Write a sequence for this structure.
């Protein structure tokens, strides 16, 4: 109990490396394996050919069966080491295999009669191999670049629009007194809890009436008026001293200029956090794009990936490759901006 | 919250200003339009201009649908167009609330709604509980002066960035019955394969586990910030009073962490109730309806069964539940701040 | 903050430039193997067909550019065949482009439905649920060059299925294929196990005989699964009818009866397979909601006996090839005989289209004997066209298997047509499927499921009366 207590309360470890430190490190390391392991497994699996994926038990690293071109057969045949009935081991190529039997041929003597064996007798001849074909084939079936482009367009434009109009609204709600201000603020906040799912059908009807089905604007605009954004920015802007604005007004600056040249720069940190949230949310958005867009060339990455795995059901080699490609962009962004993102979220969480 | 220092916006580099020129130019251009507007209505009323775009989008795409939802909820028919729907009064709501035993969906008229509802309750209870537990432990671990803290923090946070579709596919692959990693591992230990996602109970377990896996990092960060905000003096004072480690945790750390934990609790709760994306791809509500949650029920009722009226009615019920949760949270926060 | 603004602006500029560049990767129309459809219509090949000869279209002079959108799904590779045919059409009609939007069959209705109802449907779509969109179709009659001849080429039951009850004349689409449900077997596995294929020696093989044989084969060859049937109410109807189930009396009757010994027998058989673990859990006990098929298991040689339908043939032909010897066998027999379920898909047109003349032109092109014959042959489809069924079609491959199904067409019972074409049949299908899944996973008992299905059918019938 004492050690657990120590673990729970110590902020700075002393000079010695004691039990709680070990527990801590063990936990953290286990955490890393649990958190990152699955992703690593995904990447490793994505390089295996389909047959390798169905192999049981699976190997960690991707192996590919060696194959050899045999005279008289158009496709290369897989190579196996076969334990013959007399105990010797021969390296044979496989013509076909179903159930418990396999038909083999000696690659050096292709005209000989094929040998029928049971599958237990053979072991595959394998070498380390990264099946890039999974990616190539998947990209052929899955217009990755189109989906990527759509996702990027939607994310970037939506984030910019969100930042703009939310900060404008927050500015008005924090720095002005006007009739209806409190009512407006209350209405906006009360919908903080309204998820897309609750207004799904009528929202779709509105989009259809406006003519934005199968249109990227239908993905960008509706979600731009985020209550969270307004709330966040307003909280932050409240701390900007009013005197600053007053003196600017006395100097003859218009409200618009005040907004751009005083408010926005000072609200920088909050804007950055909102930008991060917006990017994360938009990039991963699924339900709304699922309904609004059905023209395949307008799919975002997430919707496309879902459609892809729905169509291909069990062709995991392509599905895995596509999944890796889909998580690549955000991983790269994360690698560069990690510190920024994590500290941003931590500070907002406090509020 | 500290006040912003107005004297020090970050003016760190001059070369950027060149690129900024066209940007500033656009702003000035707009000023030509807006300045006269301002002289017209006075600077105080410019607030209306600023709040307008947000309000417009909000009004059209959030408020109006919310109101339309009522219309859908009280009408029947299978057309999405308003004019083709017939009024049915409270029939949809009555159907939802017709149950011999509310805890037993099989006895309800709209049994799928209640399955979705109770599944969601189970999900939320366990998911939020585990999230708080694991986030707290991880935050405490990271709070210690560990080497490579930044690395560990990044690792825990990484899954948060992944999209629900990606997360679901990663785990679907690991939990595959025939070829999944987990079953391979079990077999190597001599056990039998388990139909993880094909068994009602295990599917629910994994939906919760994957959800915790995916979101934990986010809440860990928040709790970590909360921990780091506790002033050192508190601990020093406590140890001077002779309190042992456990009491310090209980009487110092935990109370001071309460506000942050409340934030985590409420956020996780609200997110939990709205769970959809990940489950949709991972189990699609199955097996049977074991992982059918309320949002998917609404989606399915609307887009697969075309029962827009019932779906709208269900979403209104959901909205009310969320409203109650929100009010509860606000009240709780008020009480906290008063203390 | 400025840095961020700058970076975003730069990024935005890059995106805008990239977006304004000519379109990058084209939308794929290639067909990865997909789930099989719920087939829907049945031409009754009794009338004498009058082949409609459509003259090749000549390029019109200075006609406005038209883009038609066709929503499509794939069972196998017919999407490629259609694409090639559309390219030929485009070459002959330079002002018309036809774009195919391919979606997964399981998502078809969900995607199409909101579009149709909100007035923004594609110009054409390949659908299996004909009754669903009644009232939204474009009447081709005004623009067809010889409407009477065109109409006579298709079964009246099919044409009627697209019309609302009081509409007797509308022409709204044509069948892309005609299908029959029925089983496939993996002959290589039977051979390895030394078990004879029952239908080789007997004409009337019962379900029990098939299941027993498949179990023997699976055990002997260590194949994971002995039997499987697609997750679809429609698939179960055929076997249940053979077991003396009875659901509805006619094409336009609204009174459905779910409970019958035949239905219970079929349902219990399916439940039993899951209890005995001889069928993959993924199909009926896996994804909750929606259609699911067992073709991947069959393709990978993990399944001995697979009950699906002839639309799988094109996919099997391509994906299985020579890996093992696969074959189609006649529908198994119950106490009341044997029947498959008729069905198919139709290419329909929507009246919200902006280009009714061009759409009709495309339809005429696609339904000409040459083009439709080519489409059917290359896609390994049974044609719905009466003129073509008279002429006959030589299939480039899988000729034997296609002909097994062709023979099954003659054995279809009247009630199988009723179930397929009655508008309420499309309510019975998913409800039966979803409720039976719940029974299999233990959420409901069979009695409770039957009650619920019946309730749903009664509600639907009542709603129709309003």
């Amino acid at each position: 109990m004492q050690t657990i207590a120590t673990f729970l309360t110590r902020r700075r470890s002393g000079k010695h490396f004691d039990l709680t430190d070990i527990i801590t490190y063990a936990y953290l390391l286990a955490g890393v394996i649990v958190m990152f392991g699955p992703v690593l497994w995904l990447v490793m699996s994505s390089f295996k050919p389909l047959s390798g994926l169905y192999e049981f038990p699976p190997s960690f690293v991707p192996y590919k069966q060696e194959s050899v071109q045999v005279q008289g057969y158009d496709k290369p045949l897989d190579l196996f080491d076969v334990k013959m009935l007399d105990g010797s081991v021969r390296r044979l190529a496989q013509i076909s295999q179903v159930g418990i039997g396999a038909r083999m041929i000696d690659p050096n003597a292709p005209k000989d009669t094929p040998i029928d064996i049971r599958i237990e007798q053979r072991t595959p001849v394998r070498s380390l191999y990264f099946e890039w074909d999974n990616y190539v084939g998947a990209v052929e079936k899955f217009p990755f670049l189109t989906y990527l482009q759509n996702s990027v367009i939607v994310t970037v434009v939506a984030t910019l629009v969100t930042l703009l109009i939310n900060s404008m609204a927050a500015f008005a709600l924090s720095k002005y007194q006007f009739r209806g201000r409190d009512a407006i603020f209350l209405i906006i906040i009360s919908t903080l809890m309204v998820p897309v799912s609750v207004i799904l059908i009528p929202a779709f009807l509105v989009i259809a009436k406006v003519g934005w089905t199968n249109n990227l604007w239908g993905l960008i605009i509706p979600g731009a008026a985020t209550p969270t954004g307004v709330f966040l920015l307003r909280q932050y802007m409240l701390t900007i001293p009013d005197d600053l604005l007053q003196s600017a007004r006395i100097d003859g600056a218009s409200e618009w200029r005040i907004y751009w040249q005083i408010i926005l720069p000072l609200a920088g940190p909050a804007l950055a956090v909102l930008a991060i949230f917006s990017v994360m949310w938009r990039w991963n958005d699924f339900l709304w794009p699922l309904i609004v867009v059905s023209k395949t060339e307008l799919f975002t990455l997430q919707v496309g990936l879902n459609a892809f795995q729905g169509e291909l059901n069990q062709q995991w080699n392509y599905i895995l490759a596509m999944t890796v490609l889909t998580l690549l962009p955000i991983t790269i962004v994360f690698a560069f901006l990690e510190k920024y993102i994590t500290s941003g979220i931590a500070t907002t969480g406090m509020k | 919250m500290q006040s912003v220092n107005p004297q020090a916006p970050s003016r760190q580099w001059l070369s950027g200003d060149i690129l900024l020129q066209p940007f500033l130019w656009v702003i000035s251009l707009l000023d030509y339009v807006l300045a006269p507007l301002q002289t017209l209505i006075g600077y105080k009323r410019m607030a209306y201009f600023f709040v307008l775009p947000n309000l417009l989008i909000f009004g059209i795409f959030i408020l109006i649908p919310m109101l339309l939802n009522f219309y859908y909820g009280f009408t029947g028919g299978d057309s999405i167009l308003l004019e083709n729907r017939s009024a049915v009064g409270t029939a949809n709501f009555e159907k939802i609330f017709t149950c011999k035993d509310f805890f037993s969906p099989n006895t309800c008229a709209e049994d799928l709604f209640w399955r979705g509802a109770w599944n969601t309750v189970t999900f939320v209870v366990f998911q939020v509980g585990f999230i708080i537990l694991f986030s707290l432990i991880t935050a405490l671990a990271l709070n210690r002066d560990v080497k490579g803290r930044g690395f560990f923090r990044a690792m825990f946070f990484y899954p948060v960035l992944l999209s629900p579709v990606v997360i679901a596919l990663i785990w679907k692959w690991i939990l595959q019955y025939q070829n999944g990693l987990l079953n391979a591992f079990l077999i190597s230990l001599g056990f039998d394969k388990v139909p993880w996602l094909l068994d009602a109970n295990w599917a629910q377990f994994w939906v919760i586990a994957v959800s915790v896996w995916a979101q934990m990092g986010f809440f860990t960060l928040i709790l970590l910030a909360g921990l780091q905000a506790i002033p050192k003096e508190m601990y020093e004072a406590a140890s001077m009073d002779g309190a042992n480690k456990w009491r310090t945790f209980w009487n110092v750390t935990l109370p001071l962490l309460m506000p942050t934990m409340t934030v985590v609790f409420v956020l996780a709760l609200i997110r939990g109730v709205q769970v959809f994306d990940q489950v949709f791809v991972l189990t699609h509500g199955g097996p049977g309806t074991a992982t059918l949650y309320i949002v998917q029920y609404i989606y399915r009722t609307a887009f697969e069964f075309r029962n827009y009226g019932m779906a709208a009615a269900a979403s209104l019920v959901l909205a009310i539940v969320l409203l109650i949760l929100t009010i509860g949270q606000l009240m709780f926060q008020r009480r906290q701040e008063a203390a | 903050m400025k840095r961020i603004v700058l970076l975003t602006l730069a990024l935005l500029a890059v995106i805008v430039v990239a977006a304004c560049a000519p379109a990058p990767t084209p939308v794929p129309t290639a067909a990865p193997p997909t789930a099989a459809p719920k087939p829907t219509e049945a031409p009754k090949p009794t009338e004498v067909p009058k082949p409609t000869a459509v003259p090749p279209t000549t390029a019109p002079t200075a006609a406005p550019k038209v883009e038609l959108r066709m929503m499509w799904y794939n069972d196998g590779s017919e999407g490629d065949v259609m694409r090639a045919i559309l390219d030929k059409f485009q070459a002959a009609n330079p002002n018309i482009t036809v774009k195919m939007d391919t979606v997964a069959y399981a998502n078809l209705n969900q995607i199409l439905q909101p579009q149709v109802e909100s007035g923004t449907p594609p110009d054409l779509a390949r659908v299996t649920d004909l009754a669903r969109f009644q009232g939204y179709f474009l009447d081709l009659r005004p623009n067809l060059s010889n409407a009477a001849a065109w109409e006579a080429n298709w079964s009246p039951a099919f044409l009627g299925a697209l019309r609302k009850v009081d509409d007797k004349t509308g022409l709204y689409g044509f069948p892309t294929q005609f299908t029959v449900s029925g089983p496939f077997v993996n002959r290589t596995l039977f051979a390895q196990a030394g078990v004879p294929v029952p239908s080789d020696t007997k004409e009337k093989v019962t379900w029990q005989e098939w299941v027993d044989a498949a179990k023997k084969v699976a055990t002997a060859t260590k194949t994971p699964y002995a039997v499987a049937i697609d997750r679809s109410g429609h698939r179960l109807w055929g076997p249940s009818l053979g077991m003396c189930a009875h659901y509805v009396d006619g094409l336009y009757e609204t009174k459905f009866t779910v409970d019958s010994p035949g239905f219970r027998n079929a349902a219990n058989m399916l439940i039993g397979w899951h209890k005995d673990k001889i069928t993959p859990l993924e199909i009926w006990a896996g994804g909750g909601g929606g259609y699911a098929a067992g073709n991947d298991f069959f393709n990978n040689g993990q399944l001995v006996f697979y009950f699906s339908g002839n639309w799988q043939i094109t996919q099997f032909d391509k994906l299985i090839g020579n890996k093992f010897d696969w074959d189609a066998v006649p529908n198994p027999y119950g106490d009341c005989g044997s029947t498959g379920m008729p069905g198919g898909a139709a290419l329909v047109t929507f009246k919200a289209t902006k280009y009714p003349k061009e759409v009709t032109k495309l339809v005429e092109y696609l339904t000409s004997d040459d083009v439709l014959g080519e489409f059917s042959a290359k896609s390994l489809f049974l044609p719905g066209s009466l003129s073509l069924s008279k002429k006959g079609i030589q299939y480039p491959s899988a000729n034997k298997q296609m002909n097994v199904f062709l023979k099954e067409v003659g054995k279809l019972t009247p009630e199988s047509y009723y179930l397929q074409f009655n508008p309420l049949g499309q309510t019975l299908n998913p409800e039966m499927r979803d409720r039976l899944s719940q029974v299999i996973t233990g959420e409901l008992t069979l009695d409770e499921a039957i009650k619920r299905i019946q309730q749903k059918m009664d509600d639907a019938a009542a709603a129709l009366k309003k």
Notes: The longest strand of chain A covers residues 89-98. Strands of chain A lie at 63-65, 67-68, 77-83, 89-98, 101-105, 115-118, 122-124, 126-128. Chain A has three domains: 2-35, 67-124, 136-350. Residues 167 and 233 of chain A are 6 Å apart (CA to CA).
